[in-house]
C-alpha cells in the first residue's frame, strides 16, 4: 500500500488498478485533494534547481589534476 | 562519450575524463551534498574527498552497476561519514535533536505562517530548498536522487543499498513529509 502512489505516478501500477483509482478520485474529494497536492509537491521539487558556486568545476578539476600528477 | 569509454579513461588516469565526470555529475553531487551539510565550503571539501576515492578505487570498479550509481554511492557514504565525524566532535545527540526540532519550528514559522504575499521565484526556491534540507538524511537523499536528479528507482535503490520496494517506501515517506511541509503553500497556489 505504501508504494501504491509511487507506482501510480511512475506509471508502473497495473493498468486496471490505475483506472479504478482514477475513477475513485473523481468522486472522492479527500483522495482527490491528497493526490493533487502530492503531485504538485513532486512537481515543485522536480523543478527545483541547485545553485552551485562559481568556478567550482574549475577548482575541482585543478584539484584532481594536481592529485593525478603526484 | 559512452560510459564504458569514460570508465576506461578514468582507469587510465586521464584528467580530461575527470573533467567529463565533473561536467556530467558535478552539479548533482553538489546539490546532494549541500542539502546534507548546508555549507558550501564543506560541500566542496566532501566533493574533493569523493574524487580522491574515485581516483583510488576506480581500478576496482567492476562495471556491475552504472558508473553514476557507484559515484553517488561514494558521494552519499562520504558525506554521511563526514557529517557523522563532525557531529561526534561538536554536538551531543541531545543538542542535535533539539536543533532539529528548532529547525522544524523555524521552518513552519518562517515559511508557512508568514507567507501571505506573492512569493518571488528566488524566495520559492529557498523555501523548497529549506524544506528538502529539513528532511532526515535518508529521505533527503531519496528525494534528491529520484525527484530532482531523475535517477531511475532501481539505481536509487542501489545507492541507498535497499531493495527496489524499500526504495519506493523511502521515497514515498519522504514525499509525504515534504508534502506536509509544503502543502499550505501549494494549496494557496504560492508554489
What does this structure look like?
The complex is a heterodimer of chains A (70) and B (191). Chain A is mainly alpha-helical and 70 residues long. Chain A has one domain. Chain A has 4 helices and no strands. Chain A has helices at residues 4-10, 15-27, 29-46, 56-69. Chain A is elongated. The model of chain A has no long low-confidence stretch (mean pLDDT 89). Chain B has 191 residues and is mostly helical. Chain B folds into 2 domains: 1-90, Rna Polymerase Sigma Factor, Chain: A; 92-191, Winged helix-like DNA-binding domain superfamily/Winged helix DNA-binding domain (Arc Repressor Mutant, subunit A, Orthogonal Bundle), CATH 1.10.10.10. Chain B is 79% helix and 0% strand. Chain B has 9 helices and no strands. In chain B, helix 4 (67-90) crosses helix 8.
Number of domains of chain B: 2
Helix content of chain B: over 70%
- Element string of chain A (H = helix, E = strand): HHHH
Strand tally of chain A is 0
Low-confidence stretches of chain B: 112-118
CATH superfamily descriptor of the largest domain in chain B: Winged helix-like DNA-binding domain superfamily/Winged helix DNA-binding domain
Amino acid at each position: 500500500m505504501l508504494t501504491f502512489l509511487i507506482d501510480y505516478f511512475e506509471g508502473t501500477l497495473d493498468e486496471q488498478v490505475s483506472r479504478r483509482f482514477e475513477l475513485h478520485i473523481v468522486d472522492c474529494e479527500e483522495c482527490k485533494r491528497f493526490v493533487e497536492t502530492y503531485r504538485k509537491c513532486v512537481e515543485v521539487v522536480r523543478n527545483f534547481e541547485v545553485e552551485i558556486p562559481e568556478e567550482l568545476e574549475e577548482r575541482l578539476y585543478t584539484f584532481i589534476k594536481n592529485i593525478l600528477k603526484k | 562519450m559512452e560510459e564504458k569509454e569514460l570508465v576506461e579513461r578514468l582507469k587510465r588516469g586521464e584528467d580530461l575524463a575527470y573533467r567529463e565526470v565533473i561536467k556530467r555529475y558535478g552539479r548533482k553531487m553538489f546539490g546532494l551534498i549541500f542539502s546534507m551539510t548546508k555549507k558550501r565550503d564543506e560541500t566542496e571539501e566532501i566533493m574533493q574527498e569523493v574524487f580522491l576515492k574515485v581516483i583510488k578505487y576506480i581500478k576496482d570498479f567492476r562495471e556491475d552497476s552504472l558508473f553514476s550509481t557507484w559515484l553517488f554511492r561514494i558521494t552519499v557514504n562520504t558525506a554521511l561519514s563526514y557529517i557523522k565525524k563532525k557531529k561526534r566532535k561538536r554536538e551531543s545527540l541531545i543538542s542535535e535533536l533539539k536543533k532539529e526540532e528548532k529547525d522544524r519550528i523555524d521552518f513552519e514559522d518562517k515559511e508557512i505562517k508568514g507567507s501571505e504575499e506573492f512569493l518571488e521565484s528566488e524566495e520559492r526556491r529557498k523555501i523548497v530548498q529549506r524544506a528538502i534540507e529539513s528532511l532526515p538524511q535518508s529521505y533527503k537523499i531519496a528525494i534528491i536522487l529520484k525527484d530532482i536528479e531523475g535517477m531511475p528507482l532501481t539505481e536509487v535503490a542501489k545507492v541507498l543499498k535497499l531493495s527496489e520496494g524499500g526504495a519506493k517506501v523511502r521515497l514515498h515517506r519522504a514525499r509525504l513529509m515534504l508534502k506536509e511541509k509544503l502543502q499550505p503553500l501549494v494549496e494557496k497556489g504560492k508554489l
